[in-house]
Design goal:
The chain is α+β, with helices and mostly antiparallel strands. It has 15 helices and 18 strands. The two termini are 19 Å apart. Bound molecules: flavin-adenine dinucleotide (FAD). Flavin-adenine dinucleotide binds at residues 34-35, 69-77, 80-81, 92, 112, 134-136, 140-141, 143-145, 147-148, 150-152, 201-202, 206-207, 328, 417-418, 454.
Length: 459
């Protein structure tokens, strides 16, 4: 920020309604980091109550070349909302009103700061459904999920956030307020700029309002949990599920390290002899789900599993899903630090991936826990370490270098959910060609020529 930042910020304070720009240390500290390791104090925190204030902040910031970093709930995993160049953190937390849930149009309109689960609960009360389900949904904001194009287990069948964004209200770097897309389920008017902004990690504009597509709430669900004696057996089972024509709404996998940690945390007896586990959820009309589940269970018994457990209906399914929700906490309970990666491989490479991570563990003598959305090939590869282990920084870095290089060699990607942010900036040149990076630069240059939006990140 240019000379005498405090004087400038006090000027901005006068342009905003009372309480919408805070300069105190407590507010700055609260908005310095996310759920990754980095943090940096901003000079000010803007807490607008409406789009007009967001526009005022950006117009002023652009004029004075002050960095602005948009912030949803600060639940990102890659340091995306960390204001590495200082300036203003623009928090959307107070813009948390659900404006409309229209059962006839199958559309929801929400301000960017609405917590995702609050929106989903309200939608489901009307027997409608908004499927994208990041594990952080009880805490993260709708705007944050749009800016990161978040996904979750149900995205296998239903698609990720981008597949539900019909329209966005965005404030551009110069303060202009623009409505992109609309509220119809089909729209081919001009370029698809809603998709350009979705997943743009706060680098191209600030999302203030989101119009989302809804679908009918599936009336029934069933879950099958299967334990195996090896990851190889689990990977083969996953292939067979698709081969037999099933499209589950979720298909999750966990490896032995994860299961041992969950067993220690929960005392679960069913996990005692399993070295791998899959969870397969089906949804739809009750009669067809029950029929499909019977066929699936029969198939599963042929895999010589360690155990098979089945659940019908919401309450029982949720009970079993509790196990999945424990994965992250159980890994934390090990006392080790977890470097959570969210790589994606083409589906046919799942078995190769598990073999490769097993070799990496041995080579660098670091535990690696794998679990995640096997149906999408999107696996959380967690490199675990203790900061007192000798040469640990070099070892974790070399492990990640090798992991990402191999993933890319398989035509996979280094992030399927969390984004690049700061955490993956080192590997951005490896993951994107020179031409692709140049194209990103040109888009950034045309939408944010003074480079005030979330500076210091990957573009
Ligand atoms: C325990 C845990 C589990 C998680 N599980 C998943 C998961 O299953 N799937 C998944 O996809 N992610 C997951 N995440 C990552 C994270 O929750 C998501 O990326 C989420 O979308 C972040 O939302 P947020 O509101 O916290 O955004 P923030 O962390 O505040 O911001 C994230 C990025 O979006 C930008 N941004 C935020 N709001 C706006 C806005 N209104 N306009 C423009 N840019 C904006 C920020 O600048 C930043 O770059 C998980 C994180 C945690 C901590």
């Amino acid at each position: 920020m240019k000379s005498d930042p405090t004087r400038r910020l006090r000027q901005l304070q006068k342009l905003l309604p009372p309480g919408e720009l805070r300069l105190d240390l407590a507010a700055r500290q609260e908005n310095a980091g996310d759920k990754w390791f980095a943090s940096h104090l901003p000079e000010a925190v803007a807490l607008p109550r409406g789009t007009a204030s967001v526009s005022r902040v950006l117009r002023f910031a652009e004029q004075h070349r002050i960095p602005v970093t948009a912030r949803g709930a600060g639940y990102g995993y890659v340091g995306g909302c960390v204001p590495v160049r200082g300036g203003i953190v623009l928090s959307l937390a107070r813009m948390n009103r659900i404006k409309e849930i229209h059962a006839g149009d199958f559309v929801a309109v929400a301000q960017a700061g609405v917590i995702l689960q609050t929106l989903q609960d309200a939608v489901e009360k009307k027997r409608l459904y908004y499927p994208p389900d990041p594990a952080s949904r009880a805490d993260c904001s709708v705007g944050g999920t749009v800016a990161t194009n978040a996904g979750g287990p149900r995205c296998l069948k239903y698609g990720v956030t981008r597949d539900y964004v019909l329209g966005l209200q965005v404030v551009m770097a110069d303060g202009a307020i623009v409505s992109l897309g609309g509220r119809t389920h089909k729209n081919k008017t001009g370029f698809d700029l809603t998709r350009l902004l979705t997943g743009s990690e706060g680098l191209l504009g600030v999302v203030t309002e989101v119009t989302l597509k809804l679908i009918p709430l599936p009336p029934f669900r069933a879950l099958l949990v299967v334990g195996f004696d090896s990851m190889k057996a689990a990977a083969r089972a996953i292939r067979e599920i698709f081969h037999h024509g099933f499209l589950p709404c979720a298909l999750e996998v966990a490896d032995k390290f994860t299961l041992d940690a969950v067993r220690r945390r929960t005392g679960s007896r069913r996990l005692r002899h399993s070295r791998a586990l899959i969870m397969v959820e089906l949804d739809g009309q009750e009669k067809s789900v029950r029929g499909e589940m019977r066929t699936l269970e029969k198939l599963a018994r042929g895999w010589h599993p360690v155990f098979v457990e089945r659940a019908y209906g919401n309450a029982r399914c949720e009970e079993l899903w509790e196990l999945r929700r424990e994965f992250s906490f159980a890994l934390r309970d090990t006392g080790l630090i977890k470097l959570n990666q969210d790589i994606v491989v083409p589906r046919s490479r799942l078995e190769d991936l598990f073999q490769f991570t097993a070799r990496l563990q041995k080579r660098f003598d670091l535990p690696i826990a794998c679990f995640g959305h096997a149906g999408d090939g999107n696996i959380h590869v967690n490199v675990m370490y203790d900061k007192n282990w000798p040469g640990i920084q070099a070892r974790t870095r070399a492990t990640l270098d090798e992991l990402f290089r191999q993933i890319l060699a398989w035509d996979g990607v280094i992030t399927g959910e969390h984004g690049i942010g700061l955490a993956k900036k080192r590997w951005w040149p490896l993951a994107a060609s020179r031409q692709l990076r140049a194209l990103h630069q040109r888009i950034k240059q045309s939408l944010d020529p003074k480079r005030i939006l979330n500076p210091g990140k990957f573009v």
